[in-house]
Write a structure and sequence with these properties.
Blueprint: H1 21-28, H2 32-41, E1 48-50, E2 54-56, H3 59-74, H4 79-88, H5 90-117
């Protein structure tokens, strides 16, 4: 499950469809080489690869990276433990991630509504 309290210091995820590895690095406070390594270690993390093998991450990838970051850096899991935790709780995590996406979209829509009312 994504620990939102541990990710409060991270910036909000913008309303975009795809993110470059540099953008994800900034959004998740993890260096690009770490992201590439995590792709090898976590089978759930599969960014879209386009021309020249360039990686493009989607919103659910960014949220998964934040979850991995929380497991490894805040909760003290090893890579193997985090991998096992993620594979064992995929259904719960999917629900949690969906709820977080809905919450963030709702906030963005409320902000947009305020702008339109002005």
């Amino acid at each position: 499950m994504l620990e939102t309290s541990n990710n409060d210091e991270l910036p909000p995820i913008p309303a975009k469809r795809y993110f470059t590895i540099g953008e994800v690095s900034e959004l998740c406070a993890v260096k690009p080489h770490v992201l590439r390594y995590w792709e090898q270690e976590f089978p759930q993390l599969k960014p879209v690869k386009r021309r020249g093998n360039r990686r493009y991450y989607q919103r659910q990838d960014v949220m998964l990276i934040r979850q991995i970051r929380s497991l490894l850096y805040q909760q003290g899991f090893t890579i193997g433990g985090a991998r096992q935790r993620l594979s064992g709780n995929e259904a719960k995590e999917d629900l949690s991630q969906t709820q977080q996406v809905i919450r963030q979209m709702r906030m963005e829509l409320e902000d947009l509504l305020q702008v339109l009312r002005r």
